[in-house]
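Researcher: Re-running this chain for the archive, since the previous output was lost when a drive failed. Same request as before.
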Amino acid sequence: MNQQVQKNTLYVGGLAEEVNETILHAAFIPFGDIKDVKTPLDQATQKHRSFGFVTFLEREDAAAAMDNMDGAELYGRVLTVNYALPEKIKGGEQGWAAQPIWADADTWFERQQQEEEMQRMQAENKVAMEAAEELHRKKMAEDRDGEKDEETKDDPMAMAEAEALKQNT
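Model: Regenerated structure tokens:
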């Protein structure tokens, strides 16, 4: 699985239950301007799932925060801080969990149309190539027959053989 790392967004794991987005923001703001803080909720309990994401405006700030906060303690829990991988949902063309699965339906339809057009053009090209090859074969055969006629015109023996072949058929 070769996924592109998001250099501005950090994954923060090992969060204590009492940590919320405000506390997480306050813990990471000393390292630079923060664009966004998210703590995904468990649908059943409506509590965060012990991890969150902090997105910085600058990559350098994110790197500094990761260097300083990985292994640090917050509310009695040791944090794990890494660069975040893109959020994925199964079947999503774009792969972003924030988008509904049907968000890429238009681009999928366009790609399907382009694929069908490409297949149609390839089929037309194949037919045209086959027709050109057949025409070339006929031309070559005519040229060979013309050469044979030229050869037999000067050779009385060859003319007699060609005449005999015509009478037998």
